[in-house]
Amino acid sequence: MSNGEKTYKSGFITIIGRPNVGKSTFLNKVIGQKIAIMSDKAQTTRNKIQGVLTTEEAQMIFIDTPGIHKPKHRLGQFMIKVATNTLNEVDLILFMVNASEGFGRGEEFILEKLQGIQTKVFLVINKIDLVHPDDLITIIDRYKDKFPFSEIVPISALEGNNVDHLLHTIQKYLPEGPQYYPSDQVTDHPERFIIAELIREKVLQLTREEIPHSVAVIIEKIETRENGTVHIMAAIIVERDSQKGIIIGKQGSMLKEIGKRARTDIENLLGSKVFLELWVKVQKDWRNKASLLKEFGYREDEY
Ligand SMILES: Nc1nc2c(ncn2[C@@H]2O[C@H](COP(=O)(O)OP(=O)(O)OP(=O)(O)O)[C@@H](O)[C@H]2O)c(=O)[nH]1
């Protein structure tokens, strides 16, 4: 464009990294807690959009890359080939690592997957609030030789340090492009997914370390009754009987609390009264049972 006017930029970005490195924290920081629901839009894209950041200069669409984070399970294997396709199709990859943890097999696995990928990769070193600045140099040196990263950006997603700098750097690398989504859209997750995540979040919050992140929530029914109340039936899937006991709690007290807190959030989300029915199901080793993946909503043709 002439007169020095800036052109609009947009692109698809995926954040990869081992569990717990802070991917969700970063996205929440960037996108905020606001969730716009688009219930009438079918989930037809292969990859879930996790959030959209729209500014006057650019639009960044963060998408998930299923299959790259959890190589140990068949769930991962099942989706790994699609992960590779996704990595080649996005405009930028953010490889996030935890500054307070050493380089491990998880990182190595991901770097192997990145070999031969055409897309540019940033190394995002998160949780710098946990390390001494001198150590940061050592961490950077360690990673620098392992992969030709386009940029190395240390941040603290939790405290917000350097997050703006990362966003500016991302913007520099994005191609010229249109604003794909309306400005007020932050995510296109269907309601089902968000509701499941809200329930899962309460399970993890209230049970602290006792229930692993692999706990799944399946929304079995969402129904709007004539009086406008939304009835939701959801199953919390755990792998062990002992975990079921923890989630139910003494005389059902834990499950009741999970339900109460989740209901409040869901009511805020939907803007209507919600009747939430929760139950806990033990499905041993569910992540390794390929036949069950379909039941849990992972369909090969979607990924
Ligand atoms: N000190 C510190 N903690 C952080 C930072 N970012 C994230 N965390 C914490 O690290 C933990 C994991 O963060 P998440 O954002 O859930 O990590 P994730 O990568 O999305 O994890 P998965 O969903 O399991 O893949 C949480 O307890 C966060 O509060 C950071 O910059 N500094």
UniProtKB/TrEMBL annotation:
Subcellular localization, as worded in the UniProt entry: Cytoplasm; Cell membrane
Q: Where is this region: G5?
A: 155-157
A Gene Ontology molecular-function term?
Answer: GTP binding
Q: What family name appears in the similarity comment?
A: Belongs to the TRAFAC class TrmE-Era-EngA-EngB-Septin-like GTPase superfamily. Era GTPase family.
- Name recorded for this polypeptide: GTPase Era
Arranged from A to Z, the UniProt key words for this protein are: Cell membrane, Cytoplasm, GTP-binding, Membrane, Nucleotide-binding, Ribosome biogenesis, RNA-binding, rRNA-binding
Keyword Nucleus attributed: no
**What are the start and end residues of every segment in region (G4)?**
126-129
What species does this protein belong to?
Answer: Caldibacillus thermoamylovorans
Gene giving rise to this polypeptide: era
Q: Which PANTHER family does the UniProt entry name for this protein?
A: GTPASE ERA, GTPASE ERA, MITOCHONDRIAL
